[in-house]
Amino acid sequence: MKSNQLKKLFTQYKMLALLIAIALIWSFFTWHTEGGFITPRNMSNLMRQMAITGIVACGMSLVIIAGEIDLSVGSLLGLLGGIAAVLDVTHGQPLPVTVLAVLAVGLFIGLFNGYLTAYLHIPSFIVGLGGMLAYRGIVLGVTDGITVAPVSPELVHLGQGYLAPQLGLLLGVLLFAVAVFLTYRQRASRARHQLAQAPLWRDGLRLVLIAAVLAGFVTTLNSYEGIPLPVLLLLALLAVFTYMTTQTVFGRRIYAVGSNMEATRLSGINVKAVKLWIFGIMGLMCALAGVINTARLAAGSPSAGTSGELDAIAACFIGGTSMRGGSGTVYGALIGALVMASLDNGMSMLDVDTYWQMIVKGLILTLAVWVDVATRAGKR
């Protein structure tokens, strides 16, 4: 009985459990680094590291929700980042041309992966596995197996630039205003349809917590240099993807395809087109992550993105995306990305051996999938 109650409680408050887990992880590393982990400089580095995985996780969450998987994203990230470096360094292309070209290539490759999966009926696991090998080979050919550097200052600014502190404060106020507006609209909508309302104090407490998190986030980053531009991009993507998955027909169709593909097809929805565009979006996210990664490193490396697919998939599973499809959120995947980045950052600060880092991350991925299986079993 207690086991079932615990499963039900965890299912209902999964995001809260993740936030508590992050607090415990941060407390552990802060204690063992004598406060070094939570310094503004390290927090800024942590957020910047998390942004790369987070951008890929935005696309990966849609792929997994639709009941598919893409193992090629790490290699594709490396390939697109290498193309950005070659266009910038070798061919001297302006930044807008470089970014648009990389986005176009990413979209094309993503749609190609989607076509192979949706229309040629090749399992996405095999398409991803083949892409993982092929794209890594192509990036070695594009870069001649050497690091392409130095990239232009304009490109570097995308990965290493900061938002001015005054603009960071304004952003924090705007985000809180959006949270208040959405809460008000939700309550008004439920009242209009005569649906049960959550207690007012609960929404008020949630807004207070949001205000506290935003204040801490902006204050901490502003005390170093400001909000990193990759983090700003990630926040924009969070808003776009959350709106798309919750407020658009296409978003609802993604969940429908993952929940019951045959029933969705029989209802008249073009399942193949939905899957095609999901992989196209995944390609765009890899392009953005590749450009930002090259900008952050100020060079195009043939080894960039190695194991990136594992971090993105782990972030989605940790954030509550079900491996069976049909369930998950983008903001949950980003919280999962923060968990992974926090572990990477903290263990690196403690000089933990690489093999132990891999073991810990593997165990956490296994635990996340087990939790998904256990909580879903508790619902039946």
Automatic annotation (TrEMBL):
Keyword Hydrolase among record annotations: no
Main localization (coarse): membrane
Keyword Transmembrane helix belongs to the record: yes
InterPro entries assigned: ABC_transp_permease (IPR001851)
Membrane-spanning segments: 12-29, 49-66, 97-118, 125-143, 163-184, 205-224, 230-255, 276-299, 355-374
CDD domains: TM_PBP1_transp_AraH_like
Entry keyword set: Cell inner membrane, Cell membrane, Membrane, Sugar transport, Transmembrane, Transmembrane helix, Transport
Membrane topology: Multi-pass membrane protein
Protein's cellular compartments: Cell membrane
Pfam families, per database record: BPD_transp_2
Function: Part of the binding-protein-dependent transport system for D-xylose. Probably responsible for the translocation of the substrate across the membrane.
Protein name per the record: Xylose transport system permease protein XylH
Organism for this UniProt entry: Pseudoduganella chitinolytica
Underlying gene: gguB
